[in-house]
Amino acid sequence: MALETKQSQVRSTYTNTAEGYELNYTGYRDEGENAKDINVWAKKDGNRACTATFSANGRKSFIVDEGVSDETAKALFSVVTDDCANIFGQINKKE
Q: Which of 9, 61, 68, 82 is most buried by a 10 A CB count?
């Protein structure tokens, strides 16, 4: 019996900083397909500040951890929204 590849996934990772937080993004897509979701983690001094999942269909899940001010949460949400739009644009380019 020969080993057969059924599906390959492409993983794309990105980083950015905002408001003193390190933002980490990971998007997965099946080879030849568009990415459906991007997962996001924000941390500062080793402590998680928020997690998010942004979907290509427009759905956004943004969870802020305890101790993060409303002003910081708004600023992070804005940066993450812009970054995810840029990332989707890069990894979902038709080749």
A: 68
